[in-house]
Design goal:
Blueprint: E1 2-7, E2 19-31, E3 47-62, E4 66-81, E5 94-110, E6 122-138, E7 149-168, E8 173-184, H1 192-198, E9 221-233, E10 236-247, E11 251-254, E12 257-260, E13 268-279, E14 282-291, E15 298-304
Antiparallel strand pairs: 1-2, 2-3, 3-4, 4-5, 5-6, 6-7, 7-8, 8-9, 9-10, 10-13, 11-12, 13-14, 14-15
């Protein structure tokens, strides 16, 4: 992953403490078909995403811990991918492009004690987003029967709630609850892969933000998580987190077209156990992750410092 994010913040000298924040983002997401340890450089990457967008945000602080904002954005979202993983290096990829604009309002309130691996406080977010744009599709060698096409998508809305709260119990043990709800009338795209990639993703852990997992994506879903944080020594936490992801309808693949499952038929679990040292310059973490129904459900994840990703235009 590589990218650039530039923004300016202007606070006019008014009685009401408003701010105006224009921003420019370019992000390149490159995913490989092989494992993280053994790359096959003879194969092209199975998914390449380029996300370019500009936004203009107007914000109004509400008290000391809350913020109300409104935002307009224009984006060019591109994906190059293969319809299945059985591809050769001479194959050409599918190309999907979605050029769109969005309007968004958001309310945020939070008192979390850390940017990552929080153990105290709460976070509450409500967001309403309206999206409208045009999808361009060019088939690759795996979809010879398909024709290039342009599709204008009618505006759709996306409502998202996120909540997180931590509770003190015994002197060295804290418990946390995480919840997420997403409701939308988002349409399907030209094929299964482009529809799946454009759908909202549930990514509650640092490593999950680097992965593409169809079992944790849906146009409508609810998620609930529980956290246990044991503090054996100063600035050291042993964290255990378990999440249940419940989509309303799962996006399934039927001959590279989208078929929505029956309501509430599928659900998935993800979990994480990590040892974290909260150093003065950022966290140091070694953890084990579990993703239900994946080909490699267990993974080891280590990072030094903060993990920072650019926001995505469709998020």
């Amino acid at each position: 992953t590589s990218g650039t994010h530039l923004k300016l913040k202007w606070e006019p000298p008014t009685r009401i403490p408003l701010f105006l924040e224009p921003s420019l983002t370019y992000a390149n997401w490159d995913y490989y078909n092989s494992s993280a340890l053994f790359y096959d450089f003879q194969k092209p990457s199975y998914l390449l995403q380029i996300d370019r967008f500009v936004t203009l945000r107007l914000g109004l602080p509400v008290g000391n811990q809350s913020l109300l904002s409104a935002q307009y954005g224009f984006a060019d979202w591109e994906s190059r991918y293969y319809t299945n993983d059985a591809f050769d290096k001479i194959d050409t990829s599918e190309f999907s492009q979605f050029v769109f604009q969005h309007w968004q309002s958001e309310f945020t309130s939070q008192t979390l004690n850390r940017k990552m691996y929080s153990s105290e406080g709460y976070q509450f977010k409500l967001r309403l987003k309206l999206i409208s744009g045009t999808e361009n599709y060019i088939p690759g060698t795996q979809s010879k029967a398909m024709e290039p096409s342009d599709s204008v998508h009618k505006p759709w809305f996306q409502f998202k709630y996120t909540g997180e709260r931590y509770f003190k119990t015994f002197s060295r043990l804290k418990l946390g609850v995480y919840s997420e709800l997403l409701i939308s009338n988002q349409p399907v795209f030209k094929n299964y892969k482009s529809s799946m990639l454009a759908s909202p993703a549930f990514q509650p852990t640092p490593e999950s933000q680097t992965l593409v997992m169809p079992d944790f994506r849906s146009h409508n879903y609810a998620a609930l998580g529980f956290k246990s944080i044991f503090n054996p020594a100063n600035q050291i936490d042993l964290r255990t987190e378990v999440y249940l992801f419940q989509p309303y309808q799962r996006i399934t693949n039927k001959n590279n077209t989208v078929q929505l499952s029956d309501p509430f038929l599928y659900r998935s679990i993800t979990a994480n156990m990590s040892l974290v040292y909260n150093s003065p310059v950022g966290p140091v973490s070694l953890g084990i992750n579990y993703y239900e129904k994946q080909e490699q459900p267990v993974s080891l994840f280590f990072h030094l410092g903060y993990i920072i990703f650019n926001a995505k235009s469709l998020d």
